[in-house]
């Protein structure tokens, strides 16, 4: 254990924090730290406290790369601005290099949420339930009986004789029928083509669903849009049966996915698209007219993989319980090449159950079922039987109305607090769905305008956020995407209960006050 009070110790702490990043992000962080240091003061701002072993910050000329890097890190790490030293351990590498690990891939990177949780653990975070911390990094909604009008969370699950058996890798028929019926009643009443249980594959979580999908597609270009869900990177890098193509979106449009961009991708031969809608991390959603046009463009040409886990966190229609889904724009459920992912994780606030589903044409579902036999073995059987009753359409509508009213209240609270701290919000960057804020730090001084520096200060206030550069998805490192990396953004979740949000906003406000940035 060490107490951090001096600049040397603060530099060591920050440098080791940077060292735990995946290599592409570490390279990017270094170049961006340099840009930040140069642009913020043209290298002539005096430091309040300069360690004796660091050259005065008046020029970087004549220094080798290591010395230059050390100087720039010092510039961003020693701006303590009155923060008390904390008795915390130095961040450590993921693996112990002194232990031989035959055949193990020690270069495997952590996803963004896992990385920030690992770092918070090193600073004393005890995990879920630690009331001393405000975990605004976890991508999960509050899961207790805390939402007025919501159904009571289950406290027990019946274990019948049949549920002691393995469930089919596509899921039990009863749950598959319930999912199909819910989508037909909610989105497809005016279509002759209806989903049946044969169009539904139950999977043990969203990542397992994505992995199954990745295993059954082949010999194609798959486009995906940046920024997006951090776990896509690992899934896209593991499989070599297709070529992933990242498509960076424009910050000026708050990273909206324009149809013209998709048209260009189709023109260059892309035959599969993967995207979250509503979007993680921006919190924005395609409109119904955009979705309708998207389906017309891709029908019979391109597989659409639509991650719709946040489709019920939708605030643009008065919080009436309405939701948005590609299922509303599919003409023939067995011909239109569309795979829809959703589950109990977000909308039903049961992330620990790991009960999710994929909807699509029967041929795709059969292939996904076969893939489950060698990838994951299928979902938990008792939980599947327990989930059937949750999917009655009228009950779901009532549940979603309660959820939307509550989460919109939390969104508005967080935006109000951040607005009072000087952050700017408008129609484009105010989330109309999900429970995420894609927060721009670029107006903040020095260290705080960099997502790693902001994250570092948040750790000392027992607040967890996710640095924006984790939403860079460059699975094969085929291009220099670090040039468009989101170093001045963090993702903040307003998924936790309101007292945690209050604690998190209080912590961020203390940071800005110390830096005279309010």
Automatic annotation (TrEMBL):
The keyword Transcription regulation does not apply. Transmembrane segments: none annotated. InterPro entries: Aminotransferase_I/II_large, AspAT/PAT-like, PyrdxlP-dep_Trfase, PyrdxlP-dep_Trfase_major. Its cofactor is pyridoxal 5'-phosphate. Keywords: Aminotransferase, Pyridoxal phosphate, Transferase. Residues 1-12 have a biased composition (Acidic residues). Residues 161-480 form the Aminotransferase class I/classII large domain. One of its GO terms (biological process) is amino acid metabolic process. Gene3D superfamilies: Type I PLP-dependent aspartate aminotransferase-like (Major domain). GO terms for molecular function: pyridoxal phosphate binding; transaminase activity. Residues 1-26 are annotated as: Disordered. Pfam families: Aminotran_1_2. Belongs to the class-I pyridoxal-phosphate-dependent aminotransferase family. This is Aminotransferase class I/classII large domain-containing protein. It comes from Australozyma saopauloensis.
